[in-house]
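Re: [ENG-882] Designed sequences occasionally contain unexpected residues at chain ends

Forwarding the minimal case from QA. C-alpha cells:
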C-alpha cells in the first residue's frame, strides 16, 4: 500500500510513534524515525523496521527546536529524495493542578506538543507543495476536546493542534496536501503507565468498549488517513478512544 513512500514519524522510539512507524513499514514504506533521548529503544525500532523489509533512517532531534526540526526534514530529503507523509506524534506530559503549575511546565508542554508540530509542518510544507502532494497527520488527544483537571498545559497544546490542523488543511488543500488530526483516548504506553492502577481500572469501566487502547489502534487510523482511500478527507479530527468521548 505504501511501497516506496517516505514517512517521517516524530517521537517514534516508543509507544504510539513506534507502532505507527512499524505499521507503515509493514505496508511497504521507508521510515524516518525521530527520537529525542531513547537511543537503545530507537535502535530496536530500526531493526524491527528492517526485519519488515523497510529502510529506516534514525534522526535524533528535539522537535521543539526550530533548527532541529529543519534538520529532521532535511535529512529525510537527503536520504530518500522526498517526503510523502509526516506524522507529528512527539509529545510529553507535565501534569499538575493549575494553582501549582510551574510556568516552565506549561512552556515545555506547549513547546514540544504544539510548537514541535508547527516546526515540522513549517519545514515540510515547501517540500510537499513542490511535490503537489503530501499527507500530514497530527496526534492530538481527547483531552484537547474535553479538557482534564491537572492537564491545563497538555489540553491547551492538544486543542491548539486541532486549530492548527484545520488552518493548515485550508491553506494547503489546493496544493494536494491533506492535514488531519487523530485524538486518542487512553492508550497503554509509557506515558500512561505512570498512572495509578485505580485510575486505570476506573478508565476501563467508563470506556464504552471496556478496554484501554493499544498503540496499534492509533496506528491503524494513521495508515488509513495517509492512504488513497482517505484522499477526500482533510481538516478532520478523529477520535480513537473506545467511545470515551462522543
Ligand atoms: N498514551 C496515551 O494515552 C495518549 C493519548 C492521547 C494522545 N497521546 C499522544 O500521542 C503521542 C505519543 O504518546 P505516547 O503515549 O506514545 O508517549 P510516550 O510513550 O511517552 O512516547 C513519547 C515519544 O515522544 C518522543 N519525544 C518526546 N519529546 C520529544 C521531543 N522534544 N522531540 C522529539 N521526540 C520527543 C519520545 O522520544 P524519547 O523516547 O527519545 O524521549 C518518545 O518517542 C503524544 O503526542 C501524546 O500526547 C497519547
Amino acid at each position: 500500500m505504501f511501497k516506496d513512500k517516505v514517512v517521517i514519524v516524530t517521537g517514534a522510539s516508543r509507544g504510539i510513534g513506534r507502532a505507527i512507524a512499524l505499521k507503515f513499514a509493514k505496508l511497504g514504506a521507508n521510515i524516518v524515525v525521530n527520537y529525542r533521548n531513547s537511543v537503545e529503544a530507537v535502535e530496536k525500532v530500526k531493526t524491527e523496521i528492517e526485519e519488515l523489509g523497510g529502510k529506516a533512517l534514525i534522526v535524533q532531534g528535539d522537535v521543539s527546536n526550530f533548527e532541529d526540526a529543519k534538520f529532521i526534514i532535511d535529512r529525510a530529503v537527503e536520504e530518500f529524495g522526498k517526503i510523502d507523509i509526516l506524522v507529528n506524534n512527539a509529545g510529553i506530559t507535565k501534569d499538575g493542578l493549575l494553582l501549582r503549575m510551574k510556568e516552565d511546565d506549561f512552556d515545555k508542554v506547549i513547546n514540544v506538543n504544539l510548537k514541535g508540530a508547527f516546526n515540522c509542518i513549517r519545514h515540510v510544507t515547501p517540500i510537499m507543495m513542490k511535490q503537489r502532494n503530501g499527507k500530514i497527520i497530527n496526534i492530538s488527544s481527547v483531552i484537547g476536546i474535553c479538557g482534564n483537571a491537572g492537564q491545563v498545559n497538555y489540553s491547551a497544546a492538544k486543542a491548539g493542534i486541532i486549530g492548527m490542523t484545520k488552518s493548515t488543511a485550508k491553506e494547503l488543500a489546493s496544493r494536494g496536501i491533506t492535514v488531519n488530526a487523530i485524538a486518542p483516548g487512553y492508550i497503554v504506553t509509557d506515558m500512561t503507565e505512570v498512572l495509578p492502577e485505580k485510575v486505570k481500572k476506573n478508565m476501563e469501566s467508563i470506556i464504552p468498549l471496556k478496554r484501554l487502547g493499544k498503540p496499534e489502534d492509533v496506528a491503524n487510523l494513521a495508515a488509513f488517513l495517509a492512504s488513497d482511500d482517505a484522499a477526500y478527507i482533510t481538516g478532520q479530527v478523529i477520535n480513537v478512544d473506545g467511545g470515551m468521548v462522543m
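QA comment: On inspection the terminal residues look reasonable. The longest strand covers residues 177-184. Proposing we downgrade this to a documentation issue.
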